[in-house]
Amino acid sequence: MITVGIIGAGRIGKVHATSITTGIPNARIKTIADPFMNPKTAAWAKSIGIKNVTKDYKDILKDKEIDAVLICSSTDTHSKISLEAIKAGKHIFCEKPIDHDVAKIKKVMEALKGSKIKYQVGFNRRFDHNFEAVANAVKEGKIGNPQIIKITSRDPEPPSPEYVKVSGGMFLDMTIHDFDMVRYLSGSEVTEVYVQAANLVDPAIGKAGDVDTAIITLKLKNGAIAVIDNCRKAVYGYDQRAEVFGSKGMIACSNDSQSNAKLSNENGVTGEKPLFFFLERYMAAYQKEVKCFIDAIVNKKATPLGVKDGLEPVLIGLAAKKSLKEHRPVKISEIKF
Amino acid sequence: MITVGIIGAGRIGKVHATSITTGIPNARIKTIADPFMNPKTAAWAKSIGIKNVTKDYKDILKDKEIDAVLICSSTDTHSKISLEAIKAGKHIFCEKPIDHDVAKIKKVMEALKGSKIKYQVGFNRRFDHNFEAVANAVKEGKIGNPQIIKITSRDPEPPSPEYVKVSGGMFLDMTIHDFDMVRYLSGSEVTEVYVQAANLVDPAIGKAGDVDTAIITLKLKNGAIAVIDNCRKAVYGYDQRAEVFGSKGMIACSNDSQSNAKLSNENGVTGEKPLFFFLERYMAAYQKEVKCFIDAIVNKKATPLGVKDGLEPVLIGLAAKKSLKEHRPVKISEIKF
Amino acid sequence: MITVGIIGAGRIGKVHATSITTGIPNARIKTIADPFMNPKTAAWAKSIGIKNVTKDYKDILKDKEIDAVLICSSTDTHSKISLEAIKAGKHIFCEKPIDHDVAKIKKVMEALKGSKIKYQVGFNRRFDHNFEAVANAVKEGKIGNPQIIKITSRDPEPPSPEYVKVSGGMFLDMTIHDFDMVRYLSGSEVTEVYVQAANLVDPAIGKAGDVDTAIITLKLKNGAIAVIDNCRKAVYGYDQRAEVFGSKGMIACSNDSQSNAKLSNENGVTGEKPLFFFLERYMAAYQKEVKCFIDAIVNKKATPLGVKDGLEPVLIGLAAKKSLKEHRPVKISEIKF
Amino acid sequence: MITVGIIGAGRIGKVHATSITTGIPNARIKTIADPFMNPKTAAWAKSIGIKNVTKDYKDILKDKEIDAVLICSSTDTHSKISLEAIKAGKHIFCEKPIDHDVAKIKKVMEALKGSKIKYQVGFNRRFDHNFEAVANAVKEGKIGNPQIIKITSRDPEPPSPEYVKVSGGMFLDMTIHDFDMVRYLSGSEVTEVYVQAANLVDPAIGKAGDVDTAIITLKLKNGAIAVIDNCRKAVYGYDQRAEVFGSKGMIACSNDSQSNAKLSNENGVTGEKPLFFFLERYMAAYQKEVKCFIDAIVNKKATPLGVKDGLEPVLIGLAAKKSLKEHRPVKISEIKF
After folding, report:
1. Residues D87, D184: Cα–Cα separation, whole Å
2. pLDDT in tens, B209-226
3. With bands split at pLDDT 50, 70 and 90, how would you rate the model's confidence at D278?
């Protein structure tokens, strides 16, 4: 039985808390911390069996009984708390991204060197049943050598312009998941990126200095080419698809819906929209990633996504930003590390 | 080069005429006959290269140059003209059904005995690409021993009550195609039929003494069971599907649409309706069946659908009528032949 | 918070126990009873937080703290324990079927009369996301008046001949779910049934006095016709589909798979098989039905499936057996009640 | 009735000849010319009703009875024969591309200025039922403002290295169709192109100086972004898909197969591969484009694809070649015209 503390009781902290209490029998949450802890959140925590609540995450780090922490606080605190948790000897599950600043990720990497601490980054989509099936087909050689990887990733609704300003930009906030997906599905590393992007959804996003629609081309070490298409707003819902084409075939996955029922009438044959957004689509994936983390601790094996897996997508994201600014293909090696 | 005469210049006669002139290079139509032949039809015939038009089909039967006739006249004349054409030594393609009266079909069978005349019945659906793929999978053993055969056959629009009165009833008019399909897909013979039917679409059909909605269960010689569901009106268009389930798997086909384009928006993911009706869905099948008929003549081989194939669905249809009337399962052997 | 006792710790008892502990926050299981309770089961019970285990279900009935029982014991005990639980004043969730003997179901109905006890029968499929979507479309009038209801229900593997002998026959054991589904999707009652069945899967099933393949036609009070096709063995897995066709359109649902990934290669375009069997396909439905039961208790409202809903499918099943035996359509009213 | 001459009796010349004789009643082919005309081809021509065959296409240009010519000769002769045919006053259907040399296309444009000659370029895919449905949905505003256009275009088999050497390279030989498709589906013009390409299919193609796999990003005048993915070899057959995503939704089309039959067995649920190659997929489109050409002559209206539509994809193709060479985004305006 692994004793866990959760740092951050926002949306994603709550998702992980519920996942653990309902589906991970060999983990128990002892404490949840949030600087804005209030009676309502405290009552919720109690209702799902969490013993302690606190405003200070250090209470968790100091607690000898706690084996592992889930860092679900705001992005700017991820690397700092990671470093402190490493010092405190806790295993760490850290929400993506570790940081937007490569230097800070580097510090986490260095702090982990030689330690036995398990570190996992929260790229939840790797644990989605559809993407897993695609990745497994590639790994098993069913499509031969990968040649073209295609990711479609579109959100149902754009973030607020306020959020856009502090988000690090679409590539570090949204596309970062797709950069990880390219690495996951190809089993290779990105070496170069080219961005063609535009501000088509909401002029306020443009005023906030960001784009909302993009085609991103990536060159991979294994010779394959990848392309991501992003949009901050798809009126039909969360569009999350992937396709890997290779010398022996193609494996592709599409969206999930609430049901597969189809209505035939004078207007045609109509199926349901994709599941609305990430909480609907990836709920099982969120549970599975934490299960794997706990399993890595219990069985003393590597986590499925280490700190390097947290770093690479940030490097690609920074190269993508540079490509957009300089309107040219940018090598990942141009980004200082 | 086979020289052909077409008897009947109604809808289906025109379909065959166009099929031959545009897609069957080794057949030419010399004459087309219709009791209601008028200048407009004559002009149409000329425009597609048919030399002669006549009101009297006997002009065709007397013409020594003509090798084969297509009987596309009204149903009540099929067996009579068949007999005359046999006497005249013409190969015969006869639209379904040969007759509703089994005794008359019997006469055609007897007249054909010992002759070298090729006789083919117009069950066009056997030549549809989707049903052919299903039948081929069954023949090739891909689904093992057939156990359940399911046919869905629904029209987009009910016929007029006037037509219903002279149609011989839904089972002989519409379901007859599905009875043929059961034989085609199962490679076996029907031994018993049970009908559960209702008048749900249009009360006028009921007043005309017919049903418009039915579930028909069939027992087959090879041990399999089949079920047909019919309706005279499907608002979404012509619904023509089949499924054969067996010991090693299932093969199923669905409808065709004008395109496979799918629109995703706030209402869901919408594809097109099925092709509207039989002329849209089966145009290629109509051409293919006549190609096979001409091929049988040219290469002196059996036609794919002989007079027995014209008889069996009529027997099943008559048994279905009896089952509906007597509300019990009826053996095909109960129908006098 | 509702306190629950579970009677029966077999496969389905365990499913419900897990559902409650992981997903129903306002219910807690105090005791689980099983005549074959052993240390392994006891350990499992403890591991998911169940306080007490017992061999005697009467310990549960006697416990004043327990509000509700889930009867998951063998079929022959369902009605007896139901009666005892009613006497003890417990709310009851009873696995299907209540009994194969109509007289015994009648006794349960009578015992419930006038009481405030909530009684729910375990027809889990009504809580499946796909069937719910179909039923909702019908209820919302999207397909107009239902005219044809079609249910496909095929198991991946036949039961053992030993099980077949005590199962009550395919209609009461397997098709009973489909009889319920016809009632659920049509919103109407079955008035007549006709069975065409065969023994095609395994001769041992025939020797045990049962069939394994069937087409079952049903007449409904609202004028619609329904058809169920069953087979005890589909090599591609659990095949669970439904279609409702009506005056304004058709709503249909198909199977679920582990993922929607599709592999395109020289052999074609291949998607996954349906989920293997009922535990895979209906896990979420099992949880949802118990949630609804608890909700009915907490909010003092009717359960979604009362004792009448447990009775009707048994009546239809008995009529189906009679139809098979007498080879004729049988009215439900012929079955004594 | 339009009298037509066909210049070139290779594969595509034969396709057009058959299309006209079987499906375009208001056109007749008087003469077919080919420098390699032989008895076999002459016999074929006669069998489909073409009166004259010749080795010299000038016989066609000189023939006062001939209204229109179809230029189906080798690419390097397209612009030259176009100019001669303009001089001879013939309407012209010219296979794509008009030329790889922009200056030569310019000459054709100038020669056409002020004349009443109808000129159509053979971008057949615009007449495919699936792509038409996508384009129509866009034109009708069903997806709002286009934001992302995606084209997948993969051949089933790579060309021979010999062909590659004279083909003008993949972008002018294969992708040129996709450049046209982007213009067709977006209703806008391409302003910039970026290529990421590789030689992954066959090293011999690389030795011949070409690539075989590519992701091509395009910027459009209306603000949208487009992406094409190409491969010279897809083992599962000809992969031709398109997707247009916009502010109000998405419209997408997929491949066609010989039938829609699906086999379910222990390996999964398998549908057929896409139709093998362009002759199978686009046969109806080839006929429709010539119908439109004849219709434009008869009804004195514009052809659906003028000489400008022949020019633009060549400009984009040349820009793509430059982008590949210089590894940077290239503006179409950089290509001299």
Report:
1. 30
2. 999 999 999 999 999 999
3. very high
What is the assigned CATH class of domain C128-274+313-334?
Answer: alpha beta
- Separation between Cα atoms, residue C86 and residue C104, nearest integer Å: 14
DSSP state of D23: H
Spatial distance between the Cα atoms of D193 and D102, rounded to a whole number of angstroms = 18
User: What was the pLDDT predicted at D26?
Assistant: 92
How far is the CA of B248 from the CAs of C234, C239, C262, in angstroms? 8, 14, 21
Q: What is the mean pLDDT of the segment spanning D175-190?
A: 98
pLDDT of residue B336: 86
CATH of domain A126-275+313-334: 3.30.360.10
CA atoms of B69 and B85, how far apart (whole Å): 8
Residue C20's closest chain A neighbor by CA?
A: A22
Q: Are A4 and A30 in contact (CB under 8 A)?
A: yes
- In chain C, the residue whose alpha carbon lies closest to the alpha carbon of D275 is C268
Q: Which of A22, A133, A263 sits opposite C261 (nearest CB)?
A: A133
Q: Is A189 at the interface with chain C, CB within 8 A? A: no
pLDDT in tens, A59-92: 999 999 999 999 999 999 999 999 999 999 999 9
pTM for the full predicted model: 0.96
Nearest to C31 by CA among C56, C53, C48: C53
Give CA–CA dist B96/C206, Å, rounded. 41
Contact residues on chain B for D132, CB-CB shorter than 8 A: 259
Q: Tell me the HSE value of A219 on the side-chain side, using a 13 A CA sphere.
A: 17
List the single residue in B239, B265, B269 with the smallest CB-CB distance to A235: B265
d(CA C29, CA D14): 78
Domain boundary assignment for chain B: 2-117, 126-276+313-334
* Residue D53 near residue D29 (C-beta atoms within 8 A): no
The per-residue pLDDT of chain B, averaged, comes to 97
- Interface pTM, i.e. ipTM: 0.96
pLDDT score at C337: 76
User: H or E stretch including C290?
Assistant: helix C278-298
Average pLDDT over residues C166-176: 96
By CA distance, what is B255's nearest residue in A?
Answer: A269
Identify the architecture of domain A2-117 in CATH.
Answer: 3-Layer(aba) Sandwich (3.40)
Tell me the pLDDT of chain D averaged across its residues.
97
CA distance C18 to C22: 6
Alpha carbons A50 and A30: distance in angstroms, whole number: 6
D7: Cα separation from own chain's centroid: 17
The answer to whether A182 and A315 have CB atoms below 8 angstroms apart is no
Q: What CATH number is given for B126-276+313-334 in this structure?
A: 3.30.360.10
Q: What is chain B's length?
A: 337
Task: Give the closest-approach CA distance of D95 to chain B in angstroms.
Answer: 24
Specify the length of chain D in residues: 337
Residues of A within 8 A of C258 (CB-CB) are 129, 133
Distance CA A233, CA A212 (A): 8
Is C249 in contact with A272 (Cβ distance < 8 A)? no
pLDDT per position as a tens digit, B220-268: 999 999 999 999 999 999 999 999 999 999 999 999 999 999 999 999 9
Q: What is the DSSP string of D166-225?
A: HTT-HHHHTHHHHHHHHHHHHTS-EEEEEEEEE--S-HHHHHTT--SEEEEEEEETTS-E
**Pseudo-torsion of CA D31, D37, D41, D43, nearest 10°?**
70
Taking the C-alpha atoms of residue D103 and residue D109, their distance in angstroms, rounded to an integer, is 10
Rounded mean pLDDT, A240-245: 98
- Indicate whether C92 pLDDT > 90: yes
Distance, in Å, from the CA atom of C205 to the CA atom of C159, rounded to the nearest integer, reads 9
Tokens for B239? 């619904």
